[in-house]
Design a protein that fits this description.
Largest sheet: 7 strands, mixed
Shape: globular
Distance between the termini: 31 Å
Length: 213
């Protein structure tokens, strides 16, 4: 039986076996250099222990995989780091590389949860923008980290709620529905999905609809 091709796009430090784990964060790129791990241990620029097996690719660019060559795509807390236009391109690329009836699962922070928390007075007004993750986190950081923040921190550039993301993914060509954590057609979802990343999150799973002419 042919092995399925499964992409984990924007993997961070979540690199399960039998997945192609893809990222382009500065930390992932620098960790390819043998001596950088030692430098990072001294300066503490990156908190993540980046895996050497991560495939480097800028997800705002055309994906390196062929049309209809991928079975499953999983992406958690990545789409919100792209602009609205970059996000649309990202989803179109997902559609292009997926086989007919291939699976796409997207997890992003839920804007509605943040707004409800503020409106219910569970979040202070002066904390609202900070909690959205749209700013560089330079508070209580040394001078070096503050200067380098634009190069290794990736604030949120677009926010979503369930109806909006559902509509966007549907318009891209998928049959899509909102899902609960670990409720998925992906067989090994428990190997890749983190419970902490599904809290206050939008989870949408889509199936690529074969085009008919």
């Amino acid at each position: 039986m042919k092995k399925k091709i499964k992409l984990n796009l924007g993997c961070g430090d979540q690199v399960p076996e039998n997945w192609i784990n893809v990222d382009y964060s500065l930390g992932a790129r620098l960790m390819k250099f043998p001596f950088f791990k030692f430098i990072n241990s001294k300066l503490h620029l990156f908190n993540l222990d980046w895996n050497d097996n991560i495939v480097l690719h800028d997800l705002t660019k055309t994906f390196p995989w062929k049309d209809q060559s991928v079975d499953v795509i999983y992406s958690s807390h990545t789409l919100e780091h792209l602009t609205k236009e970059e996000g649309q391109h990202f989803l179109m690329e997902c559609y292009r590389v997926l086989k007919d009836n291939g699976l796409l699962r997207i997890v992003v922070p839920d804007l509605r949860k943040f707004v409800e928390s503020y409106l219910n007075q569970n979040m202070r007004a002066d904390d609202f923008v900070h909690n959205l993750g749209v700013l560089y986190g330079t508070q209580n950081q040394n001078v070096i980290k503050r200067k380098l923040a634009p190069f290794y921190q990736f604030p949120h550039k677009c926010m979503y709620d369930t109806p909006t993301l559902l509509s966007i993914i549907h318009d891209t060509g998928f049959t899509a529905m909102d899902k609960a954590a670990f409720d998925s057609e992906i067989e090994d979802i428990s190997a890749i999905e983190l419970s902490s990343r599904t809290e206050n999150a939008v989870i949408i799973e889509g199936i690529k609809v074969p085009q008919t002419f």
